[in-house]
Design brief:
alpha+beta, 9 helices, five-stranded mixed β-sheet, about 45% helix
């Protein structure tokens, strides 16, 4: 079936979108598919650049919550011959899924092995975690490891709250992970209680991304965890230069930059990890990495 000018007709073949995401329901990929980029944005972007084409790339039936890719748009003509690219595209996606799934499963198995080793010898486990704190590490793994390290860096720190000086309540800092990695759901990655600190993990230095994160929380102070080994001062300078390039008014730049509460780079994460190990939290950090990885990769 194909959607043409708002009418669904059983004519042109289309690809079931589920088959493009790993097939069966037990696959790690596609089970947590977020539809916001499919059911509206992609079609709108397509119309913007190809207004003369009546067909749209993503077809959807709201009642059944099913999606299809319009196969008609994947047919290419070379001379007198026509080639349907749908099947080769699915084969490429399936190969990618197989490779990524095997990679994540190896990662989780390795984490499980090192979790057991950490109870006997710590050096090998420390080296393993430190290798995960690198600019070329998968973004999801980096976010999970960053969370585990920061959680146990803050968790034994305390603050005092109260309405009267002689009646203060002692509270430990607790860092919460608020959702899945790379979700593009408009949320914040980590939240700290009771201080209400926000943390966002990123691997880009595109100032627009930083300012978007700041803007969506009404310019509330935010800490950025950046997947970079560059010194913090250099990262802040690059962000300011990018901001000044985008905004000509200094007051606007200063207001946005003032919202960056702290920048945590790979070097700081490594230092905080070593501090946690020295305090005896290596086992707990590994447990957290395993737990969050199983959730992230739908590992059962």
């Amino acid at each position: 079936m194909v959607m043409m000018k708002g009418v669904i007709t059983p004519s042109t073949k289309v690809l079931n979108f589920q088959s493009c995401l790993g097939g069966n329901a037990n696959c790690l990929f596609g089970r947590k598919l977020q539809n916001h980029a499919l059911n509206h944005r992609l079609n709108e972007e397509f119309r913007k650049f190809f207004p003369q084409v009546d067909a749209q790339p993503i077809l959807r039936v709201v009642e059944t919550k099913r999606y299809w890719i319009n196969e008609k748009l994947l047919v290419s003509s070379v001379g007198r011959r026509s080639f349907n690219l749908a099947r080769p595209i699915i084969d490429i996606i399936d190969a990618y899924i197989k490779t990524k799934q095997a990679s994540f499963e190896r990662f989780i198995r390795t984490c499980l092995k090192f979790r057991e080793i950490s109870k006997k010898s710590s050096e090998e486990v420390e080296d393993f975690v430190l290798q995960l704190l690198a600019p070329n590490v998968d973004a999801r793994i980096f976010e999970i490891v960053s969370y585990a390290i920061l959680k146990y860096f803050y968790h034994d720190q305390t603050v005092y709250f109260g309405f009267q000086l002689d009646d203060l309540e002692k509270s430990q800092l607790i860092l919460y992970k608020t959702g899945r990695t790379n979700a593009n759901d408009g949320g914040i990655d980590f939240v700290m209680k009771p201080l209400g600190r926000f943390f966002q993990v990123t691997e880009t230095l595109d100032v627009r991304k930083y300012f978007l994160d700041i803007e969506k929380i009404e310019r509330y102070p935010i800490t950025f965890v950046i997947k970079s080994s560059e010194p913090v001062d250099d990262l802040l300078k690059k962000l300011r230069v990018g901001a000044e390039r985008q905004y000509a008014i200094k007051a606007i730049v200063d207001k946005y930059m003032a919202c960056i509460e702290e920048v945590i780079n790979i070097t700081i994460l490594r230092e905080r990890f070593k501090s946690g190990v020295a305090l005896g939290y290596l086992d707990s950090i590994m447990e957290e990495i395993v737990r969050q990885s199983k959730v992230e990769f739908n590992y059962e």
